[in-house]
Write a structure and sequence with these properties.
Blueprint lengths: L2 H14 L6 H5 L3 H16 L5 H14 L3 H14 L3 H8 L9 H16 L4 H11 L1 H22 L8
Helix pairs in contact: 1-3, 3-9, 4-5, 4-7, 4-9, 7-8, 7-9, 8-9
Length: 164
């Protein structure tokens, strides 16, 4: 590792309490990028305006859209513990509308689905999201989609490590 990479690993460990893992291993090629991505993720995962049930729901919609099993396998149990039913979680992975959504879950689902499917959120949906979850939570939900799409792109494009 370069001195810059070693510093980045130390910064990552100071923020996250663990060694770089998953997409952060690939991102270490660009140490400053890795730490900036990690800091954004720390905010979106632990301090966003969304409660864990809704942020994990947004993460799952994104992981399913990108067919990203690593993120799915990490976040599906967290979503279940945060209060999403297994039935809703399974529906997201199957790309079918989840049944029996609460109003806040429905707006997050619609918001995330629109972003991934249409690459935009229309004014009516955005206004509904503002009304149901609030303006800051709406922006944070969209940012979660973008952040986890970035991680999915990295993970889906990771080259296997060659055998020695």
């Amino acid at each position: 590792m370069t001195p810059e990479q070693r510093r980045a690993v130390e910064q990552f460990k100071a923020l996250r309490g663990v060694e770089p893992f998953g997409p952060f291993v690939d991102l270490l090629v660009s140490p400053e990028l890795m730490n900036r991505v990690s800091a954004l993720g720390e905010y979106l995962r632990y301090r966003s305006a969304l409660p864990p049930r809704l942020s994990e729901f947004a993460i799952l919609v994104t992981a399913a859209h990108w067919k990203q099993r690593v993120e799915w396998d990490i976040h599906a149990p967290i979503a279940l513990a945060a209060g999403l039913s297994q039935e809703k979680i399974d529906a997201v992975w199957a790309h079918v509308p989840p049944p029996h959504l609460e109003p806040d879950e429905q707006v997050v689902y619609d918001l995330c689905t629109a972003l991934h499917r249409d690459q935009n959120v229309g004014p009516n949906l955005r206004a509904r999201a503002h009304e149901v979850i609030g303006e800051k939570a709406t922006i944070d939900a969209m940012a979660i989609c973008g952040y986890y799409a970035l991680l999915a792109m990295i993970l889906n494009s990771s080259a296997p490590i060659p055998e020695p």
